[in-house]
Write a structure and sequence with these properties.
The protein has 146 residues and is mostly helical. The protein has a single domain, classed as 2-Layer Sandwich (Nucleotidyltransferase, domain 5), CATH 3.30.420. It has 6 helices and 4 strands; from the N terminus they run αβββαβαααα. The strands form 2 sheets. Strands 1-4 form a two-stranded parallel ribbon. α3 crosses α4. The two termini are 26 Å apart. The model has no long low-confidence stretch (mean pLDDT 86).
Length: 146
């Protein structure tokens, strides 16, 4: 599910960023050490290498590093999901959610930079790396053991 979410995110963004900032989620980090020391999950690292981006992890117990992101998610959830219609299947719901997110990006001021989220995203899209085929993660541990 994590791999699929990355591919769909990169697809909607129009490419792959140079780095991704993550909480120390168990699907990505096997062990948190001191400071920035992490034992990254081998499958997560294989995915990051496939898309050629650098994962960066927040410091433990440093809520200020991810608080802004969590606040934006909370606000967006209200904007996107309010008035959500019923759907006959998951694919239809996902298509509606993607379209609704794009609409919200057009309407929402960026907050720190001039323009909307879409305006800033359009500038950033120009420097994203091309999206390769989706990473499936199958056989990663077998390949790494050879």
């Amino acid at each position: 599910m994590l791999f699929d979410a990355h591919w769909h995110g990169f697809r909607v963004f129009g490419g792959v960023p140079a780095r991704g900032i993550y909480d120390n989620m168990k699907t990505a980090v096997d062990r948190v050490g001191r400071g920035k020391e992490r034992q990254v999950n081998i499958r997560f690292l294989a995915m990051a290498n496939h898309y050629v981006f650098e994962p960066e992890f927040c410091n433990p117990a440093a809520g200020w590093e991810k608080g802004q992101v969590e606040k934006n998610v909370q606000d967006s959830r209200h904007q996107v999901l309010q008035g959500m219609p019923g759907f006959s299947d998951l694919a239809t719901m996902n298509a509606w959610l993607e379209q609704r997110c794009l609409e919200v990006w057009q309407e929402t001021p960026h907050g720190t930079l001039p323009g909307t989220i879409q305006d800033v995203w359009a500038e950033e899209r120009a420097v994203l790396m091309p999206l390769p085929p989706a990473f499936d993660g199958l056989g990663v541990s077998e390949i790494l053991c050879i």
